[in-house]
Sequence to fold (225 residues):
Amino acid sequence: MSTTLFDRLKEAAGQEWLNYTDHVFIQQMESGTLPPEVFKEYLIQDYRFLVQFARAYALQAYKSRTMADIQIASKGLADVIHETDLHVKRLETGWGVSRQQIESTPEAWTNVAYTRFVLDAGSSGDLLDLVVAQAPCAIGYAEIGERLKPALEANPEHPYAEWIGEYSADWYQQVKVETISHIDALAARTFTEERFSELAEIFTTATRMEAQFWQTAFDLAAANA
Fold:
């Protein structure tokens, strides 16, 4: 099997990728011991994150020069809207938190830093820069879902069954495949070895911010206790 550009970027990220995909948030979710209030704070901030991520997919469409790339951006935008609807449903059902309350909750500074970093990568760079900045989220959640799937299979009543089921589902695993393929297709047009260090820095920074995103949920839950 040939090495993809994503494989190289993930390898360059090294420990940062593990810090993200094996964060204590993920470990506790796997065991079913993640405190509900931590999950609640995560869902609220992730909703706010996804609003900006939707803008990033819109920016993908703007940066695109082919209808095929525009269609990819459009599908990504639709997937994000689907995720936000699920978050609202979980928050309303589990904690009685309305969409209006979610949208009035301030973004954590780590959320602002991450999302604006992604948007800046796309605004100042090209389409490849932007897709690479989004890749840790799009691909990482699929890897995490795949990792947690056995916990769900072992316990259908798992407290985080719905979340695990969503990101381990075939449709989201396909997001991973399509994103990796898209990165390679874009690289075939514009990538040079001279660009790799810059792309690796974008990817690693976004990966580091993903890990901090998990931690922010713990910090907010503790602050609001």
Q: What stands out?
A: The radius of gyration is 17 Å. DSSP finds eleven helices and no strands in the chain.
